[in-house]
Amino acid sequence: MSYASRSGRARTSAKKPECFGVCDRCSLWYNLVELGWQYDWRGTSLQNLWIRVCPRCTDVPQNQLRAIQLPADPTPVWQPRVEQFAALESNTRNLVPTRTDPITGLPLPPAQFRITENLQTRVTQETGAPDGLDANAVMPYNGAVQRHYGVVLSPLSITSNGTATVTCTFSTAHGQCTGDQIAVEGVLNPLAAGFFTVTVLSAMAFTYMTYSDIPSAGLLTGTTRVITCLVGLPYGTLQIPQVGP
Q1: 78 within a domain of the structure (yes/no)
Q2: I want to staple 198 with a disulfide (CB 3.0 to 4.6 A). Which of 126, 167, 205, 206 is the partner?
Q3: pTM above the 0.85 mark?
Q4: Residue 138 and residue 59 share a domain
Q5: Boundary residue ending a domain (24, 42, 63)
Q6: Domain count of the fold of the chain
Q7: Residue 153 — left, alpha, or beta (φ > 0 → left; ψ -120 to 50 → alpha)?
Q8: Longest CA–CA separation in the chain, Å
Q9: Per the domain annotation, does 72 fall within a domain?
């Protein structure tokens, strides 16, 4: 009995001996199988503190020390792929197959021409209004060059010369550069209204091209408004309207 009293709370058996172990907190002896490791929250997971403790000294991990992990908003996409905008917004050129005579079956002389995906004859440049022009996509500035948009210009005259070219003259400097965009409304001929890219002639005048020819006339009215803007254009389009041969 005197030897057993030195075993602390460990069981001593000559027939089935077991290892002793000491609790790192209370320093009492236990059988090693009764001792466990102390865990505690570190971030969002439990971490082993490598402290051997008895059942009485074991602390339940405190949830208040557990880090709160908020879900991603929006939920991320696993292995995202970038859309091939350049390829999708470009028409594919196909060749019309060689035709054959319906009676003899002999091939006709090659008269192949190039067409687009929507079966239109291909030209060197697109014509008319750009497909995808978004009048709501007005930008506050153009790249790194800070510019003011939504500025109302006061033209002295707006005239057409019988073609698709419209000339705007001003009594003061208009401040525009070639390639800038304007919105025109309230002119005499509605074909001259819309969004256009300007070509500067001088500090007091610039021109823009419409989608079709306009008879020679003065287009300025009492309700005419010319406003600087920058609207969204389809990929690869540099000016509005697109001008073809």
Answers
A1: no
A2: 206
A3: no
A4: no
A5: 63
A6: 2
A7: beta
A8: 125
A9: no
